[in-house]
Amino acid sequence: MRNIRITVSYDGTSYSGFQTQPHGNTVQDYLERAIRMLSGETVKITSSGRTDAGVHARAQVINFTTASQIPAERWCLALNSRLPKDIVALRADEVPLSFHARKSAKRKTYSYTIRTARIPDTFQRRYQFHHPNPLDVDAMRDALAAILGTHDFSSFCSVKTVAESRIRTIYDAWIVEETDQMSVEPNQPGQLRFYFTGSGFLYNMVRILVGTLIQIGEGKRPAEEMAAILRGRNRALAGPTAEAHGLMLWNVEYAE
């Protein structure tokens, strides 16, 4: 048997999340169907993480074992001809049988995009949350400092979270201010992109962090409250869950 690793990107707008569900229409369903069409095998793929309905991925990593002798470099082109246009295989390689897309991952990065310009961007509307009200970026940056390191993130995960441990490590978190590509005037601010790099993330963790940061940016909470929310270990203390379509699995890193 061979272990094939593939990095895929997808627009999650039309899907009920990544992981297979009883009612179908998930990214995993389409990937496994394409693999079956190509190799004739029914495989169960493993992913680096589960994205929710409406969430996108720039670089999701999957792996599966196969008896097929198709060279690794041919998998992407062959799969892409059998996948919907909003799911794309980017690169593939053969890895040791011990490799596991989730358990072998060392660091994951998610991004969340907020459009702050007054007018929506019709071309990027699926990938950014439109929030035309002013946000205090400096205050949000100050608040981000509180989540760096290893903490219990019970305040920043859904009450539906089933993970036994709520402890995660955030290695880095930052905000990038970007210009409005739709503005007729050059260099006009119009977009904020949040990045979170960590050992792993709990259910809805990034979206709740962003929802809380938005309240801080609006002046509804002081930046100093972020640390108190974290210490409280109570979901009710944090802000709302930000909308799904602004979130993207950005990158997954492995030891090699």
Automatic annotation (TrEMBL):
One of its GO terms (biological process) is tRNA pseudouridine synthesis. Substrate binds at residue 110. Transmembrane segments: none annotated. Residues 8-102, 143-254 form the Pseudouridine synthase I TruA alpha/beta domain. It catalyses: uridine(38/39/40) in tRNA = pseudouridine(38/39/40) in tRNA. Keywords: Isomerase, tRNA processing. The active site is at 52 (nucleophile). Formation of pseudouridine at positions 38, 39 and 40 in the anticodon stem and loop of transfer RNAs. Belongs to the tRNA pseudouridine synthase TruA family. Homodimer. This is tRNA pseudouridine synthase A. The gene is truA.
